[in-house]
Amino acid sequence: MDDYICVGAIAGAYGVKGEVRLKSFTAEPDAIATYGPLRSEDGAQTFEIELTHQLKNGFSAQITGVSTKEQADALQGTKLYVARDTLPSLPDDEFYHNDLVGLEVYDTGGSLLGRVKSVQNHGAADLLEIQGPGLKTEVLLPFTQEAVPTVDLSSGRIVADPPEGVF
Fold first, then answer.
1. Of 69, 106, 142, 153, which has the fewest CB atoms closer than 10 Å, so is most exposed?
2. Cα(13)–Cα(72) distance, rounded to whole angstroms?
């Protein structure tokens, strides 16, 4: 799965004619329809999608082979993945969330703080959820240039200068 990125999820049926509610996790939400066939996490299913309407938290979409509400309901919760090489390349200071998960996080003095468990966004900005042996609970570190001055994907590490009191 390292060669695939999650770009969306099916949130359930929309109407009675087989359309689904689709959540897009892409920077440009409607770009999800341009990446070609999407696949399920296990790779057992592939999906061709056509966006039909914009909804409050996503889109309604028609999926090839889905023509009933029951078929659409059966897909609820399915995460949609696309091959990494079909996604656009990013500028040097931008990263796919998938690339950050698992990286070790060090402070500016070289001490290990933990490892990135997930990347979250609750509306304002991205947060790195960091877990580590010396931490009682996970820590949320703002993913900003000030708090995270260095991301080195090739060496699998992040250098962080966390705000006072975060760790």
1. 153
2. 5
Q: How many domains does the chain have?
A: 2
Q: Which of 86, 113, 140 is the last residue of a domain?
A: 86
Helical residues (DSSP H) of 10-89, grouped into ranges: 69-74
Q: State how far the Cα of 67 lies from the Cα of 62, in Å rounded to an integer.
A: 8
* 23 part of a folded domain: yes
Q: 123-139: per-residue pLDDT in tens?
A: 778 899 999 887 889 99
CATH number at residue 117: 2.30.30.240
Q: For position 1, what pLDDT does the model report?
A: 54
Question: How far is 134 from 136, CA to CA, in rounded Å?
Answer: 7
Residue 140: how many CB atoms within 10 A of its CB?
14
Whether the per-residue pLDDT at 86 is higher than 70: the answer is yes
C-alpha–C-alpha distance, residues 119 and 136, integer Å: 19
162/58 Cα distance (integer angstroms): 34
86-110 b/e (C-beta count within 10 Å ≥ 16 → b): eeeeeeeeebebebbeebbbbeeee
**Chain segment 58-82, per-residue pLDDT in tens:** 999 999 989 999 999 999 999 999 9
**Structural domain span for residue 140:** 97-160
